[in-house]
Amino acid sequence: MSKILITYCTKTGTTKEIGERVALILSRMGIEVDVLALKKVKDFTPYTGVIIGSPIYRMKVLMDLESFVVSRSLPRGKVFGLFFVSYIIKTGRIFWRNYIQKKINQVSSNLSPRITGVFGGKLSWKMPWIANFIFGVPSESPADLRDWTKIDAWSEEVFNAINFKEEDFDYTW
Fold first, then answer.
1. What are the distances in angstroms from CA 35 to CA 46, 60, 131?
2. pTM
3. pLDDT digits (tens, 9 = 90+) for 100-156
4. Collapsing DSSP states into helix, strand and coil, what is residue 162?
5. What does 35-92 look like in DSSP terms, one character per residue?
6. Angle formed at CA 159 by CA 158 and CA 163, multiple of 5 degrees
7. Which of 22, 83, 149, 161 could form a disulfide with 115 if both were Cys (CB 3.0 to 4.6 A apart)?
8. 49 phi-psi bin (left φ>0, alpha ψ -120 to 50, beta other)
């Protein structure tokens, strides 16, 4: 049976939580999934595909992800999906949203995923008023901008993007 790896880097645990949610949805659809931090990934051979998640931190993809992409030679054709988590991507000024999208596009062009998702993030602190002003985030914005319905829908799109063959599944139970 085919097996997917969901790997992530995180600062606050939000990206890990989203990766675990994607894994839950995929496993409900009959896909075997492992969820591991980027730093713990040693071998890709047991996996038919890989989904990689990263937060956008200080307006950039985490350095952990960039060094992972550079230092590890991911097997061609194994990257099914990328997802990014950003608090500002949903409500911030268009300038910052475009800047973030440019960074996402740079990483995506290096990996050529079948599918990419960008989700609202979660803050564990209240943004200072000056940061709200600079980034254009309304001061009354909730601390958690994750949309679980959108994440679940993206997980189903990942399932379709995987495009397994019939012989990849063992229907005997």
1. 13, 23, 33
2. 0.83
3. 888 888 888 777 788 899 998 887 777 767 776 777 677 777 777 789 999 999 999
4. helix
5. EEEGGG----TT-SEEEEEEEEETTEE-HHHHHHHHHS-PPTT-EEEEEEEESHHHHS
6. 105
7. 161
8. beta
